[in-house]
Amino acid sequence: MESGQMPPAGWYRDPEGGLGERYWDGTRWTEERRSAAPAPAATAGAPAPQAGQAAEVEHRFGSLRLIAGIFTVLAWLTIILGTLGVIIGAATADNGGDAAGIIVGGAIGVVIYALWFFAAAAFIRLSLAVEENTRRTADILDRRG
Predict the structure, then answer these.
(1) What order do you get walking across the sheet with 29-34 strand by strand?
(2) Is the pLDDT of residue 42 over 50?
(3) What is the rounded CA–CA span in Å between residue 64 and residue 44?
């Protein structure tokens, strides 16, 4: 196929990763979808725009991985800076009762925020893993015909 030439109109594998098919009208994807046709001939030859869709998905995956990394860094910064804050606050407290309250309150805050950041990063990574495995499984099933 020449570069710039679009594939013919027809039903192709959904470029957004669904297990069904989506209709390509010859110039763009429509909103029409259906479950995958049983005949392998209907899904043979993915249209050229799917390559652009795949690049967009990989870009989104990269962005989400970056966000998960940022959450992980924020969690570690929370632990480090929060611990330093608790130590400095306890050291500058006027009496022993204030120091104990600062240590307990600060430690609880550090744990809660750090767990939140770690959980957010883990959720993003888990979502990415599920989506990537779903795409790989769909590709394997497509190759089997």
Answers:
(1) 10-13, 21-24, 29-34
(2) no
(3) 31
Quick check: 23 and 29 in contact, CB under 8 A?
A: yes
pLDDT of amino acid 54: 58
Q: Are the CB atoms for 72 and 116 separated by under 8 Å?
A: no
Cβ-based neighbours of 32, under 8 Å, separated by 6 or more:
22, 23
86 pLDDT above the threshold of 90: no
Give the C-alpha separation, 26 to 6, whole Å. Answer: 6
- Dihedral (Cα; 48, 52, 54, 56), 10-degree rounding: -170
Extended strands (E) in 1-129: 10-13, 21-24, 29-34
Directed axis angle between helix 49-92 and helix 96-144, to 10°?
Answer: 170
End-to-end CA distance of the chain: 23
Closest CA to 126 of 74, 58, 68: 68
pTM, entire model: 0.53
d(CA 81, CA 15): 44
Q: Is the pLDDT of residue 10 over 80?
A: yes
Beta carbons of 16 and 53 less than 8 angstroms apart:
yes
- Smallest Cα–Cα separation from 78: which of 54, 100, 52, 108? 108
